[in-house]
Amino acid sequence: MLTLAMDKKFIPKITVFHCINAFSETSWSSVGGNDVEIKFIKLPCSSMVKDVFLLRAFEAGADAVAVLVCPEGQCRYVEGNIRAKKRVAWVQNLMDDIGIDGRRLSLSNIAAGDTAAAIQIIDGALENLAELGPNPAS
Amino acid sequence: MIVAEQKPLSEIKEIVAPYKKILILGCGTCVKTCFAGGEDEVAVLASALRLACKKDGKEIEIEELTIERQCEDEFIRESAPAVSRNQGVLSLACGAGVQALARRFAKTPVLPGVNTTFIGVLERQGIFTEECSGCGTCRLDIFGGICPVTRCAKKLLNGPCGGSQNGKCEINPETDCAWQLIIDRLKALGQTDNLRRYIPPKNWRTSLSGGPRKLVREDHII
Amino acid sequence: MSTTAQSRFQEILSKGEFAVTAECGPPRGATPEIVRKKGELLKGYVDAVNVTDNQTAIVRMSSIAACYHLLQLGLEPVMQMVTRDRNRIALQSDIMGAYSLGIKNILCLSGDHQSFGSQPDALNVFDIDSMNLIRAVQTMRDQGKDMSGFELKGPPRMFIGAAANPFADPFEYRVIRLAKKIDAGADFIQTQCIYNMDRFKEWMKMARDEGLTEKVHILGGVTPLKSAGMAKFMTNKVAGMDVPEPLIKRMAGVPKEKAVEEGINICLETIAELRGIEGVHGVHIMAIEWEEIVGQIVESAGLTPRPQSLKIYD
Asked: Does residue C205 lie in a domain region?
């Protein structure tokens, strides 16, 4: 089983796309210290997360990508989070076809300002990476 | 519009395997509207291919470009510099576009990236349906605006067949029976007399069966 | 009803006899003996035998060839012809060829879509539909001309049949469709197998009201059920079939060993009812791959012996 500590220290890179209504970076305080690199990309609505952005995040070296969206029924723009969900599912499939495992990409609903949930989601992604290992295409 | 579907990634990988430097050329008209080959799709495919090749330890350099239409030389010429920079062109246009490209760039391999399927319409967001098969002799006036040549699986002109049940076609429970639609439409139009009309055998000479077709408009040729 | 057709089957119907026809499916191979065996099972019990044309789009020995083998046995074949696999050129050609071999009855159909069959990758034809085919045969017979207007050296004087399904189509359109087929040239009609007798009677009434029973011979189709499972399958999975719930219950209500007997009883009841319906001139027994049961049914229905034709048709 792969562990995060390997010969060359594996520092997982996670890119987080988030809707500004669901999450704010200013409320975030570093988690995991130097053991993880997190990049935040904010969007006015999670529906703006285009397929190509997700893929380019992996091209840029991300090992995992998490998309944070508002809870269903609470999207400020009504169906933005539903569109994001559909797109993420589509890209997950494509990632399986590419051979880099769609499980690296995840979508989670998060209530505005729920930092604890955000931490849980990132932890979840890290746990996943313990099994998946680094991005094979980086 | 012409509706096409992008080929599976595995098939595209095989098609571009012999090349190290390719141009993915998109088309901004029909294939853009059916999400098969517009600018966005070019970007996604390029990214996916790069990731797949990186993962397999293969070298590939991909240039991305989209032109207005690949069925007109005027636009095709705009891609000439990009084409000359690459070993092969993966075209995401319909089959007509791919061939038009190949005509102009006869020395560069032009490869198809989509499977062109039908002439159709957007039924609703995300759903495209086949409506016209280009038979060359349109009689939609008799059939209440619903084409039995295209939408009836057996091309019946004096339908329906015995397999029509609950308004659905025998070949697929999700396919509407075109003749049920025609009957309903003619009823709504008060034209059910059309149903009593014997429609004689179709002249297929104007269709693809008569050979690949050509339209010449002398009034536009100087 | 045509006066230029000449066939034994036509003679029996025009005499007002209650006719009996059955079906024979050709083998999936080139062995004529299989056809002959089926023919022997039917001989003496039927006035004519329909030979199917790649039914359900499963590749079988051609209808025209199997008809010829039955003809050699002394049976009266009805060649079924679908428009799915052959264009007008091939269809007209085969009609002339069949007639030249002594085949004098034809049933014109569109045919099941090839996606149901054994080679669904095949390209279909459907150059013309069954209505066009009926008209084409009528023109060849009555005017001696093919579809291009060419005067034929010997017109095929076929007795023309078509299929009707009282259980498909929208209700109000069914009789229009029947009228259209008769106008196109149909001399006889064989219906889809009947389980819903009420609905069939309604359809017959509509046909009588339109005066259609004066213009065409209608034979009611029957298929003996073998089990409750078969009844359910037919109504759920086969397009254009209507098996009413009471009938399914009846089949399910008998022990398994008695199911076949019950199915035959239902079939005999249906035939008895058909004999009493004005405008029904016969029964068409479709016992798919169960030709051996036809004789028993015909006998139990009191329909033997079958009339012998005295005329020679050539």
From this structure: yes
- Residue C144 within any structural domain of the chain: yes
* Residues of chain B positioned with their CB less than 8 A from the CB of A100: 51, 55
Cα distances (angstroms) measured from residue C149 to each of B206, C92, C93, C152, C183: 21, 12, 14, 9, 20
The span from the CA of C32 to the CA of A122, in Å, is: 74
> In angstroms, rounded to a whole number, what is the distance separating the alpha carbons of residues B16 and B87?
10
- Cβ <8 Å between B55 and A100: yes
Q: C256 in a domain, yes or no? A: yes
Selected residues 238-257 of chain C with any CB under 8 Å from a CB in chain B: 239-240
Alpha helices in chain A (DSSP H): 51-59, 80-98, 115-132
Residues of B with CB below 8 A from C176's CB?
195-196
Q: Is A97 an 8 Å CB contact of chain B? A: yes
Mean pLDDT of C199-227: 95
Tell which B residues from 36 to 75 touch A, by Cβ distance under 8 Å: 40, 43-44, 47-48, 50-52, 54-56
Do A38 and A62 form a contact (C-beta atoms < 8 A)? no
What was the pLDDT predicted at C313?
63
C313 found inside a domain: no
Q: Which of B81, B194, B207, B101 is nearest to B144 (CA)?
A: B194
* Average pLDDT score over residue span B190-194: 94
Of the pLDDT bands very low, low, confident and very high (cuts 50, 70, 90), residue C307 is: confident
Specify which residues B48 forms β-bridges with. none
Task: Decide if C137 touches B, using CB distance below 8 A.
Answer: no
pLDDT digits (tens, 9 = 90+) for A19-34: 888 888 876 765 555 6
3-state class (DSSP) for residue C150: coil
CATH number at residue C33: 3.20.20.220
Share of chain B above pLDDT 90, in %: 96
Chains touching chain B through at least 3 C-beta pairs below 8 angstroms are: A, C
Q: How far apart are CA C225 and CA C242, in angstroms?
A: 13
Segments making up each domain of chain A, as ranges? 10-29+46-111
Domains defined along chain B, listed by start: 2-118 (3.40.50.2300), 133-207 (no CATH)
User: Which residues of C fall within a CB distance of 8 Å from B183?
Assistant: 170, 173
Number of domains in chain C: 1
Do the chains contact at A94 and B48, CB–CB below 8 Å?
yes
Quick one: tokens of C179?
A: 């009228």
Confidence check: pLDDT of A3 > 60:
no
| A127: CB partners within 8 A, 6+ apart | none
Domain containing C68: what range?
8-300
Return the closest-CA partner of residue B30 out of B86, B91, B74.
Answer: B91
Percent share of chain C, pLDDT over 70: 96
**Of the candidates A135, A122, A133, A137, which has an alpha carbon nearest to the alpha carbon of residue A39?**
A122
pLDDT digits 0-9 by tens, C155-193:
999 999 999 999 886 777 888 899 999 999 999 999 999
Quote the pLDDT of residue A2.
Answer: 43
| Cross-strand partners of C275 | none
